[in-house]
């Protein structure tokens, strides 16, 4: 079973080694629709709590997750 906290921890781990993460790089890790939905919810929660920001350079373009560094 997948839950929101686990996916937030998963994303935090990926952002430890690199402060930027392309959304399409997450796709191979997501085996089910439920996993995709919960991962997207985790991204939204991390955005809401100012852990990440998101860049998109053009409409329908690649989403880049960017870790917000706390001073």
Care to give the gist of this entry?
The protein contains 2 helices and 3 strands; from the N terminus they run H-E-H-E-E. The chain has helices at residues 4-17, 33-48; strands at residues 20-22, 52-55, 64-67.
What does this structure look like?
This protein has 71 residues and is α+β, with helices and mostly antiparallel strands. It is built from two helices and three strands; from the N terminus they run H-E-H-E-E. The protein has helices at residues 4-17, 33-48, and strands at 20-22, 52-55, 64-67. It has a three-stranded antiparallel sheet with strand order 1-3-2. Strand 2 (52-55) and strand 3 (64-67) form a beta hairpin. The radius of gyration is 12 Å and the shape is globular. It starts with a helix and ends with a strand.
Features:
three-stranded antiparallel β-sheet; globular; alpha+beta; 71 residues
Q: What is the strand arrangement across the widest sheet?
A: 1-3-2
Tally of strands: 3
The main sheet comes to:
3 strands, antiparallel
User: From N to C, what is the helix and strand string?
Assistant: HEHEE
Uncertain ranges: none
> What structural category characterises the helix and strand content?
alpha+beta
Distance between the termini: 35 Å
Helical percentage:
40-55%
Rounded average pLDDT: 93
- Gyration radius, to the nearest Å? 12 Å
| Shape summary | globular
Strand content range: 15-25%
Please work out how many helical segments DSSP would assign: 2
